[in-house]
Write a structure and sequence with these properties.
The chain is mostly beta strands and 905 residues long. The chain has nine helices and 60 strands. The strands form 15 sheets. It has a five-stranded antiparallel β-sheet, with helices on one face. Strands 16, 17, 19, 20 and 21 form a five-stranded antiparallel β-sheet that branches. A hairpin with a 2-residue loop joins β8 and β9 (100-103). The longest helix is centred in the first third of the chain and has 8 residues, at 119-126. It is globular.
């Protein structure tokens, strides 16, 4: 079977130096290659030379299941498949097939480090049928084991198959037809039960498209793809039609589905839809604004509170101005350049291009894209669209952070927690945090110690309700703070702080006047221990190929020092062959000979080191080109930590090559604002090490439990929809994710799951030819947000009724409304949040947020069971704070009121 025909980026055209994958390089002539009807993507496109079509040897041969080897010393390619051996010297017109000489039309040659050969040689070498269509400039290869696939829709399926997990779309042209649209998707897990896939392009306004509709689409209105690969990337034909039979065209919103068609005895399965796509002008990254940020800078309750900043496009030569769109965050996921073109001019703000990055304050008449005035209590996301001098919309930025105008101060950010002593109480805990940027609006801070097992339920409401023995107050000083806690401090549950208990630390900013408190995110887990202490691990290991000596002098390693170097003696940088990296552990590292690692002294700073000419890997072999390595750092202890060394995780894979690798970025980090409980709370940052030979950077979000298998090869093959593209820069990059950001697998970023960020330095294919992956950032987790319960709940008997009053939470952050309920006292003791969430809307009274805080029940009303309120029955009142589903997602139930009965009239 052919392997990975459509994702042949894994097996791209031959790198003469034997290095890794490189980015795409556009050919002068747009020639395509198909294998059994499926388009093959290679990073060196076919070209014409001396009236002969030249194709990339490695990309084609490996897609046809041949093994390809390159020998640098003789500049010779050797390929083997099914007992056939082909030997081809670079630059020669003569090759051998099983020892027999054959003459090439034109000699094989190298283009940007890729070997290309005449098309006819593929047929002669591997016996496959090769065709050339000059009108469409398409090379078609039909394999000898390819069989025609007859689509079948079984009438009595007996076995289910799985749909493809996701579908990604990308606009790759400007012809205004199906040829502009590239679709990619992974194979279904049910490989054996599938006969083909059908690509179905559906108008986005169709709300009734389902499996039954998909199975009845005429053959002329879909694109059929034979089953036979693990990943597919398909560019549609110019004559491709949507499911209504109309030609695919510009200015129409589409969604794309993939129908997995079962073989005999199997049913069909329909994928979920892609995101909305519309054909139009393709903007280059250099023409798009970046780093869009929204800030709350005042308290007018309208657009004057809203400040927008962004980094202007690096190439403004075709631009006239920018348009700033304020979009309700609930609609931000579907906001596109197509939607932006439909927005009335009264509902966006025009910013002229200038020599510096713009900062603009909106006005009291500024409206969002729906035409509503900007106001407090609504979450907004900002987009910036680049406009040409002719008025065309040519590109939209990524969305800003989500911003809700209001009167909640910014939360502090914990940067470090440490075990600094051996008292076995709060004096062992030292906390460092970054002050709130709005200290003029706060009176001070409170520090809480929470057992890790209880941290999932610790929120602002819980923190606000704790007794003073369960927190420590810290004054504001205008600077970031480092504080050591006290001996008398209890944890949030009232228990003494002790050794061998995992804790997480929180810091709360105390709002002054009308400003509400705000709570930091949780710290990393801290477990106090007495006696021998362990050193900390280094982090952020990045590896780079920086020179062309062909030995250790080419290998540069950067890492972040241990958070506390007080227990560190030195660092040992160890180079491990990648094939052995999975088995390399602390015990193995401790036993490595001193001649087989690089020892680095601590100096209080993060380190960048380069090996020497005679440097060896941990096995004692000289470091050299062409071998896959990963780097570990062993932190050795001193004093109480002597003998308790710590081993880092592995770096990304690096293969040294001649003038090949880009430089990995440094200091990849994330911060979490915790303001909306969406991906837009997450801001990532990194520092480019050396932008020589780099075309762009790609930022990936990876689940922490999947990070062990995420490497440069994986990153090279991630679909474009599943990473964030950053234009080449030599300065620090800081940018927020968007609510629609997906992880590298194309899955939505979800709450309560740990993620990390990686950055790929993408080679330009000229100065550098190998991409390099950074080390991982710190973990981030989007926490589920719970609204606050009401307080001071009272139920009072009146003539003919029961009056319920309560105090609403300060700021009502994340609350949509309140549900006031009467519960018969006999069943009130066990009435829980789960019970309240199940009460029918008919059986409670709704109180609008920000309007009323009382309700009177009469005999015409009902209790939670739907029974009429009557005299002689005792009731207790409860109030459910209902989350708005955007800022907060979890409801909160008040405590019960006292009993009350209707007074008979």
């Amino acid at each position: 079977m052919k392997k990975k025909i459509c994702s042949a980026v894994l097996v791209t055209a031959l790198t003469v130096s034997g290095g890794l994958h490189t980015p795409s390089v556009s050919a002068a002539t747009p020639i395509k290659i198909t294998i059994d009807g499926v388009q093959l993507t290679t990073d060196q496109a076919p070209v014409m030379s001396a009236n002969r079509t030249m194709v990339p040897l490695r990309g084609v041969f490996e897609a046809l299941d041949a093994k390809v080897l390159w020998k640098q010393s003789t500049k010779t390619v050797t390929a083997t498949k099914d007992g056939t051996t082909i030997v081809l010297p670079l630059g020669s017109r003569t090759a051998t097939i099983n020892g027999k000489s054959v003459v090439l039309d034109v000699p094989a040659k190298s283009i940007k480090g890729r070997t290309v050969v005449p098309l006819r040689f593929v047929s002669e070498a591997l016996g496959e049928k090769v065709g050339w269509n000059s009108s469409t400039k398409t090379v078609s290869i039909t394999t000898t084991n390819s069989k025609p696939t007859t689509p079948t829709t079984p009438t009595t399926p007996s076995t289910s198959i799985s749909p493809v997990p996701y579908v990604n779309t990308k606009v790759v042209g400007q012809q205004g037809n199906g040829n502009d649209l590239e679709i990619s998707f992974p194979a279904s897990a049910s490989t054996k039960g599938i006969s083909q896939y059908r690509i179905l392009v559906v108008k986005a306004n169709s709300n009734t498209f389902n499996i039954n509709t998909a199975q009845n689409v005429p053959a002329a209105n879909y694109t059929a793809i034979p089953q036979g690969s693990s990943n597919y990337t398909i560019t549609l034909m110019p004559q491709a039609r949507d499911t209504d039979g109309q030609l695919i065209q510009k200015n129409v919103n589409y969604r794309v589905y993939v129908l997995a068609v079962g073989a005999t005895g199997y049913n069909n399965a329909l994928s979920v839809s892609s995101s909305i796509v519309s054909l139009g002008v393709v903007a280059t990254a250099s023409a798009i604004a970046t780093d869009v940020k929204a800030s709350d800078v005042s308290d007018n309750g309208d657009g004057r509170d809203f400040s927008v900043t962004f980094t202007k496009a690096s190439d403004e030569s075709k631009l006239s101005n920018y348009r700033v769109f304020v979009v309700k965050t609930t609609s931000a996921g579907s906001f596109s350049s197509t939607e932006a073109a439909k927005v009335s001019s009264s509902n966006y703000t025009t910013i002229n291009k200038t020599g510096s990055n713009p900062t603009t304050r909106l006005t009291n008449t500024t409206r969002d894209t729906s035409g509503e005035l900007i106001t407090t209590g609504t979450a907004y996301t900002v987009f910036v669209v680049s406009i040409t001098s002719s008025g065309d919309n040519i590109g939209i930025s990524a969305g800003s952070n989500s911003l809700t105008l209001g009167r909640t101060v910014e939360a502090p950010s914990i940067t470090k927690v440490e075990d600094v002593s051996n008292y076995a109480d709060g004096r062992d805990i030292q906390v460092t945090f970054t002050k709130s940027s709005e200290e003029s609006k706060i009176s001070g801070y409170r520090v809480f110690v929470v057992r890790s097992k209880a941290s999932g339920d610790f929120d602002i409401a819980t923190a606000n309700g704790l007794a003073s023995s369960r927190y420590i107050d810290v004054s504001k000083t205008g600077s970031d703070r480092t504080v050591t806690l006290s001996t008398s401090l209890k944890d949030s549950g009232g228990e003494a702080i002790a050794n061998d208990v995992p804790y997480r630390i929180y810091v709360m900013a105390l709002g002054s006047g009308s400003y509400a408190n705000s709570l930091s995110s949780a710290s990393s887990t801290l477990t106090l221990q007495t006696g021998t202490q362990s050193t900390g691990n280094v982090s952020g290991i990045a590896v780079s190929d920086i020179s062309d000596y062909g030995d250790g002098r080419d290998l540069q390693v950067t890492f972040n020092k241990a958070s506390d170097e007080g227990l560190v003696n030195n660092y040992r940088v160890m180079v491990v062959k990648s094939i052995n990296a999975s088995k390399f552990n602390l015990s193995t590292a401790n036993s490595v000979s001193s001649s087989n690692y690089l020892q680095i002294s601590k100096n209080g700073s993060n380190r960048t080191v380069t090996f020497s000419a005679g440097s060896k890997d941990v096995n004692g072999d000289l470091i050299k080109n062409g071998t896959n390595y990963q780097v570990f750092v062993l932190t050795t202890g001193t004093g109480n930590a002597s003998g308790n060394n710590s081993l880092s995780g592995a770096s990304s894979v690096i293969t040294l090559a001649a003038n090949a690798a880009t430089s990995a970025v440094n200091t990849v980090a994330t911060t979490n604002s915790n303001s909306t409980s969406t991906a837009s709370d997450i801001t990532f940052s990194f520092v480019p090490a050396n932008d020589t030979g780099i075309s762009e950077y790609r930022v990936y979000v990876v689940r922490a439990d999947q990070a062990g298998s995420f490497n440069v090869n994986t990153a090279n093959n991630v679909a474009a929809a599943n990473y964030t593209r950053i234009a080449k820069t030599a300065t620090k990059v800081t940018q927020a994710l968007t609510t629609s950001t997906k992880d590298y697998n194309g899955n939505a970023i979800v709450k309560d799951v740990a993620y990390r960020v990686y950055v790929l330095s993408v080679a330009d294919g000229s100065v550098r030819s190998v991409n390099t992956l950074s080390g991982a950032s710190n973990d981030f987790t989007i926490k589920t947000s719970t609204v606050a319960p009401v307080t001071n709940l009272n139920a009072t008997a009146t003539n003919g009724g029961i009056k319920v009053t309560f105090s609403k939470p300060s700021g009502e952050t994340g609350i949509a409304s309140y549900a006031v309920m009467l519960v018969p006292s006999a069943s009130s003791n066990n009435f829980s949040l789960a019970d309240a969430n199940r009460v029918s809307e008919r059986n409670y009274e709704t109180v609008t947020k920000g309007v009323y805080s009382e309700w009177t029940f009469t005999t015409t009303d009902v209790d939670i069971n739907g029974a009429a309120i009557r005299s002689g029955v005792a009731y207790k009142a409860f109030v459910l704070s209902i989350a708005d589903g955007r800022v907060a997602t979890v409801n909160a139930l008040s405590v019960a009121s006292r009993e009350a009965q209707i007074i008979a009239q």
